[in-house]
Fold:
Amino acid sequence: MPSLFDYLIIGFVAAGVTYFATPVVSIVAVRRGWVAQPNDRSVHTSAIPNIGGVAMLLGLLFALATAQSLGRFDTLFEGNIEQIGIVLAALTISIVGVLDDTRDLAPPAKVTGIVVAAMVLTWFGATMYYFRVPYLDVFILSGDWQPVVTVIWLLGMTQAINLIDGLDGLAAGIVAIGAGAFFLYAFRLSDIGLLSQPNLGPLIAIIAAGVAAGFLPHNFNPATTFMGDGGAFLLGLLLAIATGMVGGRADPLTQAFVGQTFFFLAPLAIPILILGVPILDTLFAIVRRASQRQAIDVADKGHLHHRLMNLGHGHRRSVAILWAWTALLSAFVLYPVLTDTNPTYLPFGMGALGIVLFTVLHPSVRRKRAEEIEAALLRPASEQIVSDD
Structure:
């Protein structure tokens, strides 16, 4: 089986190709007018190229080609056609995303494209076989259920990444941290023989981390390029494939041995925790828009990153706070997996408390709160009565 070093080589190839391809893609985007114009929801004030997902796609393709040419991944590719389905699905979902970035597709068209990508994955077998519900049972997915679960899983992941892509560097950073952490988890499962082979999940996870990390320098505030829906959809696809192949193919007969041999609550619970920030933001968005009787795809400024900025945090600090939450959740679930010991809750609790206190008690937050109180006190009494009514 490929070693950890072999996987890291592929990750660096994905990052390097994405990093050097992004400026070229940006030049083409500017010349063709494929740019995001400022609007009432955006925080940038100038037109920015928004097809960075094309550079990510190139990073994915070059990384897969490198893995096949090295010979060290032959055990994963020989007699396996799943990588063909992954490439075709990536091309499909990238085309849909780029068309939306350049021509503004209708929501049904985008959903249809994502469903087609999921069907491609199912056709080539790049999907999950089991679905383990924590503390309940393991459900073996029949041929009828595999397409349904794949579509739902892919729609959820792509939507989660797309919704969190609201500040420079936020989505790319979260995917880099989350996919990197999930790769370590997947590699650990593979290393101790708990993954059915061949399994491309660890490889896709390290590629997802690589393309996100390679794109991040161009996307961090102030961003020179946006990933657009093409990039968000592609990252969501890679995360859906990696988590599905690993979480849905881990040995269903393995039991949990917390603090003894191996911590194994449920493979699908690990990615949900690692990607807790975008998933939580997606759930909040669904509830918020349903309560306001709005469509799910209606854009607003109620996301977690918008709320942090409304508190008084700047662009970079808001991104750093959400990165910190992703890193903390990833460390929490990886600790027992990598150490084979019971999780030590105190350090993680202290870390969470530290992030919360930093978020609500930062000087900029207190200063903005004081300014709002002062402004309210200085308003004429008549205006205060009207506003109260």
About this structure: DSSP finds 16 helices and four strands in the chain.
